[in-house]
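Running log. JK asked me to keep both predictions on one page so they can be read side by side. First protein, sequence followed by its tokens:
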Amino acid sequence: MNVINRIVFVSETDTDIGPMAVTILEKLLDLKERKLIVESRGLIVLFPEPCNSKAVTVARERLMDMPSHFSRQLTESDFSEDTVVLTVNKDEKDRIYRDFENAINVFTLSEYARIPEKEIPNPIGKDEDEYRLCFDELYSVVFKVASELNEADKKEKS
């Protein structure tokens, strides 16, 4: 794979899991030094919506501020040789390959992190405890993604 300049986290609505993943990865990596763009998109975005307030609260509890964000629809222009698209689960990955003609470099979070497939619980419509569970599961997988990116950087520099 070529140099990665952009990562796009894809979730169903782009109002909670995707933006949380962006927030976590931004906390774990120095993006300015890397010149890496990290964004999120949704598979079903009828109109722009802000991040779910429960997701924002849970991130803040973990000393992470979610940036101001409004949901955006995944489009054909989100795929390129220098972009990695990471889905929350396998169903979303399969849907992308089915619905987007030029989809490339699409992986589940677990697949990219090189860990057994891990289902991230979807907290939509549930209480803050479910958002906490989701955030913590997501953190453990995104931490591994960050590790993989660091390893790729080391290999590229040597």
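And the second, directly underneath as requested:
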Amino acid sequence: MSWRVVGETFVTLLVIMDPAGTAPIFVSRMSAGERQRAVGRAVLAAGLLIIGFALFGKVVLDYLGVSVESLSIAGGLLLLLVALEMLRGFDSPTGEDSDVALVPLATPLVAGPGAIATVIVLARQHPDAAGRAAVVAGILAALLVLGASLLLADRLARVVPSALLHFLTRVFGLLLAAIAVELVVEGVRGLATGA
């Protein structure tokens, strides 16, 4: 197993997953009890999704006839809906069966189009068994850091006043909307240049 590939995967995914940016969104959209239970579900779901795409992503996308650019646009639109809810003050899931740990936290925030595209490319660059194992090891290391940051965010949220959390929810909703638009723009640009 190549430690260079592990490090490359770890650093790249950590930048894309952005634990510092994901943690406030996680805190603002859940109650204290929900947050504690959600960390494990979110990290596990994101991990399964990213590792699955690292191992089989290219095959799945090719079979479905879906480009990475189209995946980016779809993820951006989904994030935009979440951002609009945050800006309007709907901080909790509306349906009984909604699980914020899975959507939007696990995907598209953590295991979004950027992370999926990255692991597909890295797996294609390192197609042998040792290379794939190194990519998976890098993914697991990034997920551990993400899980730790979410647990720390939960502890921090207990001492931050709720009025400040509501204010930060709106601010991060605006930033999330900008990220969503950027994902759509990148997808459209990729489709336009590839055509």
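Observation for JK regarding the second prediction: The first helix runs from residue 3 to 17.
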